[in-house]
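Our consortium's second objective concerns turning raw sequence data into structural hypotheses that experimental partners can test. To show how far this objective has progressed, the report includes one record in full. It was chosen at random from the queue rather than selected for favorable results. The single chain below, 138 residues long, was entered without modification.
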Amino acid sequence: MDFTLDPRLEADTLPVGDLPLSRVLLMNAARFPWLVLVPRRAAATGLGDLSREEAATLMGELRIAAQVLRELARPDRIDVACLAADDTMLHWHVVGRFVSDPAWPGPIAGSSPGTPYPPHAAAALIDRAAALFAEARE
């Protein structure tokens, strides 16, 4: 399978690991707890490009990602969306939202993601997220 992450996604994220279908990334923006799932299908630009089985797998992986994010950050709400119309690679955002976050109650789209995580904080968050994904898949 030929899969290369879009350079824009690669520049904005940190790798967490792989699920059966999707690459899991952490958005490198400390303002919001934010995961990105990218189905490893090079030609997929929309949900309709996945087979029925792949689409079902993706929905299960999004559910797991929401559970992991809830455990990681204890947000007030979790938003799940396929947002970026200008990207050619299918990817889904799983974002923890808090009543106190800078974009509340509006969408985060168009809101500045803020500063990157300090390296030690990113490493700890990625390690914890990877462990939670492993537990969820058992």
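The partners drew two points from this record. DSSP finds three helices and five strands in the chain. Residues 14 and 90 are 17 Å apart (CA to CA). Both points have been shared with the crystallography group to help prioritize constructs.
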